[in-house]
Design a protein that fits this description.
single chain; alpha/beta; two-stranded parallel ribbon; binds nicotinamide-adenine-dinucleotide; binds UDP-4-deoxy-4-formamido-beta-L-arabinopyranose
């Protein structure tokens, strides 16, 4: 059985689908602070198999220990549960450190106690900041984090590295996601931001649906081909499959060291305007947008070198941008109706 924390969330739910499709039994643990329980039924609709579900706050150390007592057959953990809004983390840093670091420590302590050794962690390209040389490899130095959220990812990686150094039996893989977008082709699960979306693609789909008047593009005077920022947008289903591969690597003891980390992206940089154009083309519609000032704190450009994940994990992003943006639109329409 694979324990998936944060498994009713955006990336977690897609990963549960891929784990079930790969034949794994799954247990979702989520406090539903940023997701809905209905996702469990939707996963069942997609896979024909229902994941086990437990509503639990991983900040609760006692309940986290009880979880491992109750489910002795947990073979591995994929840890998604965290708060993830960069702006909110600047306003409420303690909340972010308490949840993102506190939950991780509880989980690792419980795993230690119950002799569970396989751990996959959601890290982020945010650990690189604005790199000098592109694309970024895993050897690109990590930068001072720009937000408490980013710092929780950097700290979590350090905690995993140190824990692995001190415990040779414990094995973990951190996956540094670039920008996850899109939704399952069924349109039954997808990204569901609460309130006004911070991220580009949910803002695009909500604008197309008429929930937002206009997309604001933050700056067109960057040093990029069309002046807008560049990111590496990775389809959430492709991203989810990387977790299945990481779990198999740990279970088959194919890992080369007991703390490994990989870039998970497409290897290709895309500008904001290219996202808009691809969205319009893939869905045969026009998007209302305007260029506004730069967003403070934005990174100009970043994309991944994925050679290590390609060679070591045997994983590669496969789904193209047009198809991904069609899936995002399909999800938005289906969800709203
Ligand atoms: P999400 O908010 O959709 O999912 C996270 C889930 O964790 C939610 O369902 C939430 O209810 C749950 N959760 C939060 N705190 C919890 C706690 N204390 N106990 C139990 N459950 C808790 O976010 P997501 O986009 O699916 O992100 C998943 C992970 O990937 C996070 O760790 C995030 O930081 C990381 N990540 C996300 C992105 C992105 O752009 N979405 C990029 C890089 C890394
Ligand atoms: C993408 C591009 C914006 C909204 C965030 C987190 C990071 C990581 C990924 C978790 C940028 C532009 C956006 C809009 C716009 N998450 N944009 N108008 O900034 O790469 O990173 O998500 O670990 O930590 O900070 O993603 O989707 O916010 O922005 O023009 O309304 O779209 O300026 O260039 P970002 P994003």
């Amino acid at each position: 059985m694979i324990l998936v924390t944060g498994g009713t969330g955006y990336i977690g739910s897609h990963t549960v689908v891929e784990l079930i499709n790969a034949g794994f039994e799954t247990l979702i643990v989520d406090d539903l602070s940023n997701s809905e329980k209905e996702v469990v039924d939707r996963i069942e609709q997609i896979c024909g198999k229902k994941p086990a579900f437990l509503q639990l706050d991983l900040k609760d150390r006692k309940k986290t220990f009880e979880l491992f007592e109750k489910y002795p057959n947990i073979e591995a953990v994929v840890h998604f549960a965290a708060h993830k809004a960069v702006g909110e983390s600047v306003e409420k840093p303690l909340m972010y450190y308490e949840n993102n670091i506190g939950s991780l420590i509880n989980l690792l302590n419980a795993m230690n106690e119950f002799k569970k050794t396989n751990f996959v962690f959601s890290s982020s390209c945010t650990v690189y900041g604005q790199p000098d040389i592109l694309p970024v490899t895993e050897n690109t130095p990590r930068m001072e984090a720009e937000s408490p959220y980013g710092n929780t990812k950097k700290m979590a990686e350090d905690i995993l590295r140190d824990h692995a150094l001190a415990n040779s039996a414990f094995k973990s893989i951190a996956l540094r996601y670039f920008n996850p977008i899109g939704a399952h082709p069924s349109g039954l699960i997808g990204e569901l931001p609460r309130g006004i979306p911070n991220n580009l693609v949910p803002f695009v789909t909500q604008t197309a649906y008429g929930l937002r008047e206009q997309l604001s593009i933050f700056g067109n005077d960057y040093d990029t081909p069309d002046g807008t920022c560049i990111r590496d947008y990775i389809n959430v289903v492709d991203l989810s499959k990387a977790h299945v591969v990481a779990i198999k690597r740990l279970l088959k003891k194919r890992n080369k060291s007991n703390y490994e980390y990989f870039n998970i992206g497409t290897g290709k940089g895309t500008t904001v305007l290219e996202i808009v154009k691809s969205f319009e083309k893939a869905n045969s519609l026009k998007l209302n947008y305007k260029i506004v000032d730069r967003r403070p704190g934005d990174i100009e450009k970043i994309w991944a070198d994925t050679t290590l994940a390609n060679n070591e994990l045997g994983w590669k992003a496969e789904i193209g941008l047009d198809e991904t943006l069609a899936s995002a639109w399909n999800w938005e329409k289906k969800y709203r109706s």
